[in-house]
Specification:
The protein is of the alpha/beta class. It is built from 12 helices and 12 strands. The structure holds 5-amino-5-deoxy-1-O-phosphono-D-mannitol.
């Protein structure tokens, strides 16, 4: 069942080019430069969006919320378990989106139900046909990642991000909010994503890089903008399967507290692509940690001058800024996987964790 891989997690990481092709199939029309999502043919463009999710799916929600905001639609991601403690107000044109791979996460279902009680229109973004979220929500979009066995979510996260792009293009396509230029550039980037992800997997040096960082005190992950959810997800995956202390931070927040933890015993994984102002700021943050002798592993593309500063780099090909997080995240999946494998951890069934969390 593992198709020659030692773990389902490895198999599922390697399945991502195929699962992304499956996610995008029939939904992206290169000739017309448009996106169509059959499941959403009868949904109106929302005036505002709230997203609820847990864990890895919450990191996807953070990413998707940013995409909506970039299209001028107010959007906020909430941890589902917190959302129910103080649901954000919404009006009749708002859409409540629940992102849940399994469609069975109790916290997410509660948040969706609470919103429905208040009259919200709901959309489930899920991998499982006929799941509770799919049945209970007004609308459903399937991420089509195929079954995921490993407790650590990998291919479903990539497909959540890809689906998020489709959703935003579809739901923001009508009216004045359409950003047609960005759509035009996005479509070829989506088309190239499966092959680029394959090349990331084929050429990754994550296995040898982790050899340099065994037995350190803690592992920090930083990123800015769309790379912040990747940093948070990189840390979650790492702690989940290595049992080492790992934290993800917005790069700009380091100096507001976490920097006190940084030493030569705390490697920093920094996600930084492109050569814009955002990348420059993250490079400044990298210099701050290097001044404290922390080793830096940069996940980066050819454009960034971060390679001049980093101790090691994990390379991704250049792409649209919205797609780079998917490629960068794959490098961090491989970092977590190879570190956990090196430490002989129970990768597919990490201690204390379940694939689907059906209690609140
Ligand atoms: O099935 P869901 O997407 O609702 O699951 C939510 C989280 O429990 C899940 O993403 C969890 O954080 C991952 N398995 C971690 O790898």
């Amino acid at each position: 069942a593992k198709s020659g891989y030692n773990h389902f997690m490895a198999k599922e990481i390697h399945e991502q080019p195929a699962s992304l092709r499956q996610c995008l199939r029939g939904r992206v029309n290169e000739l017309s430069g448009s996106v169509s999502v059959e499941e959403l043919s009868d949904i109106d463009s929302p005036e505002s969006v709230q997203l609820v999710a847990c864990g890895t799916s919450y990191h996807a929600a953070l990413y998707v919320a940013r995409l909506f905001r970039a299209h001028g639609v107010p959007a906020q991601a909430h941890l589902a378990s917190e959302y129910v403690t103080a649901p954000a107000p919404f009006d009749s044109d708002s859409l409540l989106i629940g992102i849940t791979q399994s469609g069975e996460t109790a916290d997410t279902l509660s948040a969706l139900r609470e919103a429905q009680r208040r009259g919200a229109s709901t959309l489930a973004v899920t991998n499982v046909v006929g799941s509770t979220a799919a049945r209970e929500c007004d609308h459903v979009v399937y991420i089509r990642a195929g079954p995921e066995i490993g407790v650590a979510a990998t291919k479903t996260f990539s497909s959540q991000l890809a689906t998020g792009n489709l959703l935003v293009e579809k739901l923001c396509a009508s009216g004045t909010k359409r950003t047609s230029e960005s759509t035009r550039e996005l479509i070829p980037a989506l088309r190239d994503l499966p092959n680029q992800l394959q090349s990331v997997i084929d050429n990754s040096t994550a296995k040898s890089v982790v050899e340099e960082y065994l037995d350190y005190d803690a592992y920090f992950f930083i990123g800015r903008g769309l790379h912040r959810p990747v940093a948070l997800e990189g840390a979650l995956k790492f702690k989940e399967i290595t049992y080492e202390h790992a934290e993800g931070f917005a790069a700009g927040e380091l100096k507001h507290g976490p920097l006190a933890l940084v030493t030569q015993r705390t490697p920093i994984f920094a996600v930084v692509t492109g050569d814009g102002e955002r990348a420059q700021k993250t490079i400044s943050n990298i210099k701050e940690v290097q001044a404290r002798d922390a080793p830096v592993v940069a996940v980066t593309d050819g454009q960034s001058e971060v390679r001049r500063y980093a101790n090691h780099t994990l390379e991704i090909p250049q792409t649209h800024p919205r797609i780079a997080p998917v490629l960068a995240n794959t490098q961090l999946q491989l970092v977590a996987y190879h570190m956990a494998d090196r430490m002989n951890r129970s990768i597919d069934k990490p201690r204390n964790l379940a694939k689907s969390v059906t209690v609140e």
